[in-house]
Amino acid sequence: TQVAYKGGNPPKVLRVLINPRGGPGKALQIYLNQVEPILLEAGCEVEVTCTTRAGHAIELAQTIDLGYDALVIVSGDGLIHEVMNGLAKHPQPEKAFSIPIAPIPAGSGNGLSLNILGLQDGLDPCAAALNVLKGRPMKIDLLSFTQGNQKRISFMSQTVGLMADLDIETEHLRWMGDLRFVWGYLRGVMAHKTCKMEFSMKVTEHDKSRMVDALHARRTSAAKGLPFVSPSSEIVPNDDKHPGGPGSLDGGWVKFDKPVLWMAAGKGPYVSRSLMQFPVSHPDDGLVDISIQEVVGRKFLLDAMDGAEVGRSFWLNSNRYFKATAYRAKPLAPHGVLMVDGEAFPFEEFQIDVLHRLGTLISP
Ligand code: ADP
Ligand code: MG
What we know:
Elements: E1 13-18, H1 27-41, E2 45-50, H2 56-62, E3 70-75, H3 77-88, H4 93-97, E4 101-105, H5 111-121, H6 125-134, E5 136-147, E6 150-154, E7 157-161, H7 162-168, H8 179-191, E8 197-205, H9 208-220, E9 253-256, E10 260-266, E11 270-272, E12 275-276, E13 288-294, H10 298-303, E14 319-331, E15 338-340, E16 343-345, E17 350-363
Parallel strand pairs: 1-2, 1-3, 3-4
Antiparallel strand pairs: 5-6, 5-17, 7-10, 7-15, 8-9, 8-14, 10-13, 11-12, 13-14, 14-17, 15-16
This protein binds adenosine-5'-diphosphate (ADP) and magnesium ion.
Magnesium ion binds next to helix 3.
């Protein structure tokens, strides 16, 4: 077929990758029934591949033709993680990363789609298909994830402790969709395991009120780029001073050595429908958000579920929240798991650094 248009306005030339095993296993059906009709109706040219195994999308992205207008990923966050890591290995990585990525939610964890389209539309494949046609490219920070001599990309989250366990221990429950994370949290609350780490970070901000002010300042200044989803009513600037400690930090390394229930770090407010883990995250502020849950009782953890989907737990005093340019973590327990973008990695020392505005998404 002839390609009539290229580069920008629809119709577009799209590379579509589908993970038929994502979430409840309906990704192909979702694509054929809800997404492809919209793309074809708009005159798009599509080249579609279903992945056949874990790691397949890394290979496909690594050799991707630079002529595509967008990469449409029909899956959960796991396949997007693979695509980002494939692009990083491309012979022309910067050009490869400038092909905008558009997620179509079809996994159990669809954090990226929620961050682009919000709670209303983020789990709707049709809304995501329309975003492919009508959205604009948006630069985002990615994170460099170093473990031993391996360097990889993380685009969303790194977790240890309860927030990691709730993901890995419910992988066999993919058929539940994102309810598996709620079930996993309840299990984690009952288990109530503490996690010891050597943790240090290059902190630029530790005062929650100032973080909220900075977020709103960025949102109102168009020059600073597009925001993720609009702020929830829970995250508004206010005059109450929240504990954060003395003045600004100089960005030097700061240690945090207390035992914790979990550490979660990353970019983008949502990690799932039921949890806005990083409510003050901005797509391209050059910073990684770090949320550390100090050890508190089970009742407290159950109460903290109330409003978690709008980021209310951000304000809890026992939730220590930092913005940093880098951090390093060394788990001290023999057993455990490190989850990066919902994928399992060895429970060993790692470092995260921000790759400012390396990635490109399609955003409304
Ligand atoms: P979910 O949100 O349910 O976790 P993801 O899209 O994140 O769904 O994918 C989960 C995992 O499936 C990823 O680790 C990915 O490597 C793996 N995967 C991709 N394609 C296939 C396939 N064809 N068969 C089995 N696993 C696959
Ligand atoms: Mg996943």
